[in-house]
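User: What would this chain look like folded?
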Amino acid sequence: MGRDLIFRMSEKHTLLIIDDIIDNLMLLGEAMSSKYTIKVATGGVQGLELAVQEPKPDLILLDIMMPGIDGYEVCRRLKADQRTRHIPVIFLSALDKESDELQGLDAGAVDFITKPFKLEVVRARINTQLELLRMREQLQKARLKAEAASQSKSVFLANMSHEIRTPMSAIMGMTDLALEKATDPRQRSYLETVKFSADSLLALINDILDFSKIEAGQMELDEHPFLLAETIEAAIRTVSILSKEKGLDIVLEIAPDVPVAVSGDSLRFRQIILNLLSNAIKFSDKGIIRITVMSEHAGPETTTLRVSVTDP
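Assistant: Here's the prediction, encoded as structure tokens.
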């Protein structure tokens, strides 16, 4: 009984037929060998051994009633093994109750064919499952290709954003030095415009850098102590020229119980406030934009704050 019957044909899908009836093995093997490479096993243990041998089967036809371990258990073991869990299994069985079919599907099979069967039906079911397998493999390749392209794009954006920040720092630093020495009102106005534009561009670069880091799975928060009011006021200064041009006033209101210093990522916090302020200015024509900071919960180690930006 421990014989391996193999009908070999190159460049074909490989079928593994597991059945303890030799006549069934010969019938299916001869009927399918013109289109597929056929491996056969006369028992569950032998079938499990052949399933992991190269070339691995692309599909398994499996009987249920066999000595030793039955087909249900063979299917469960196939699906539990990382090497064979992807191989579709079709049961070929004389059992014809609905409960038998449900048990087979529950074990992990993709189809259930009742004996006696018509060979054209078996061929059609096999073709359907192999076509589905081919489509799944194509989708998997396309997904991996898309993920690789997205990863490359994210890495490129992160590198470019980082490189752009270096000259931006020099522009902003030299602008600050020029503002310290500028006495002519017109010159100061020009320099303040440059500073505002540089701050806005840096905020945009930071947004791009953060977005690309998130996509690349490299986003990390830089936690450190900082003064809350000072950080918010820095964001207000960045948009002050634009708000004044539109006749808008920005008012900061911090509740008395809010701590002066907190620990967190001041850069990300400032970016969030800056984005909210930019939107408020963009969609407002006149009035007061209010920034309110309130304490919602204060624990021994953490504090929850509510920061709101309200436009007119």
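The longest helix spans residues 119-181. If you want, I can go into more detail on any region.
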